[in-house]
Known about the structure:
The chain is an alpha+beta fold and 160 residues long. It has helices at residues 2-8, 20-24, 28-38, 52-58, 68-75, 90-98, 111-115, 130-140, and strands at 13-18, 41-48, 80-86, 124-126. It is globular. The site of 2'-deoxyadenosine-5'-diphosphate has 9 residues, from loops. 2'-deoxyadenosine-5'-diphosphate binds at residues 62, 67, 71, 101, 119-120, 122, 125, 128.
Amino acid sequence: MATLVKTFMPTERTFIAIKPDGVQRGLIGEILGRFERKGFKLIGLKQLIPSRDLAEQHYGVHRDRPFFKGLVDFITSGPVIAMVWEGDGVVASARRLIGATKPLESEPGTIRGDLAVNIGRNVIHGSDGLETANFEINLWFESTELNDWHPADQIWRVED
Ligand code: DAT
Ligand code: MG
């Protein structure tokens, strides 16, 4: 029964982006490696310089915040690595791997805790919930850019 439930349960996906500071600082491999080592599956990846329209939609919830313009200026200032990662509980788990937004609150061992000191230059974005993840994946990716595939070693990561 457990097997049946698992088989038919849609797998969770989240949207992750390495921001222009992470790309400029040569942290792409470091950050990708953390998600790979955890055991999540990369199903979409591209590099792009986001348009202003894309950035404003992505950060739409922050439209009225004083840092909004600076945030959009920053995220559109250079290449971003946009990704979709898949796995059980990946939305919340990715947020834990990323660490808190405020540098003083991001624990050592997290991406921000290890690699960032400034709230406006915190190297990575991750969706903050399931609904946001769906919205952001659809905003950044065409469905044809996402690949359903089966890692050869998947049986060593998840139970049947
Ligand atoms: P997160 O990226 O952890 O989801 P958020 O959604 O609250 O954080 O904010 C989005 C981004 O906006 C965040 O990564 C950095 C920037 N930001 C947030 N609060 C800020 C502030 N007080 N001053 C400057 N930039 C801020
Ligand atoms: Mg957020």
